[in-house]
Write a structure and sequence with these properties.
Elements lengths: L4 E10 L2 E9 L2 H6 L1 E3 L2 E3 L5 E12 L2 E10 L6 H17 L1 E2 L1 H9 L9 E13 L4 E11 L1
Antiparallel strand pairs: 1-2, 2-5, 3-4, 5-6, 6-7, 8-9
């Protein structure tokens, strides 16, 4: 039985957007409940590929996503539209990578008993989308005592 969820996500970048592709599959039991009407599968048994594009930005210590667009190339239907809307809404409202907390943890890690590091200031100055990566510009002040 296969669980609902994204399988083998793939990330790429394009201009000012980060893009990802993932396949969505429903459980085998749900697929059995789907019905064939006029040559189309109708029900909870749909399996389809999603294409997700979003613009990353820095907010309140975290990298978040805005202008999220979710598409399902070549596939449409009530269930698929609802999944696309839910994913777009969830990524816009709930996704946040707390980069400032990770920077603090990494930069203040005690490497030598004679010295202490203290992250006094941290800011993301910009996020750029390159051909094969997402570049994050940082401005921080680290005090070593």
């Amino acid at each position: 039985m296969r669980r609902t969820g994204a399988a083998s996500p793939f990330l790429k970048t394009r201009r000012s957007r980060a893009s990802a592709r993932a396949s969505i599959s429903r459980r085998a039991s749900a697929a059995a409940a789907a019905r064939n009407f006029f040559g189309r599968c109708v029900g909870l048994g749909d399996s389809f590929t999603l294409s997700i594009a979003a613009v990353p930005y820095y907010r309140n210590g975290a990298i978040a996503l805005r202008d999220v667009k979710v598409d399902s190339p070549g596939r449409d239907g009530l269930y698929i539209r609802r999944v696309r809307a839910a994913i777009a809404d969830s990524l816009t409202r709930q996704f946040a990578y707390n980069v400032s907390a990770d920077a603090k943890r990494i930069l203040e890690q005690k490497l030598d008993p004679l010295y202490n590091q203290e992250l006094r200031r941290f800011n993301v100055t910009g996020i750029r989308i390159a051909q094969d990566s997402i570049l994050v510009g940082l401005d921080f002040q680290l005090a070593v005592k």
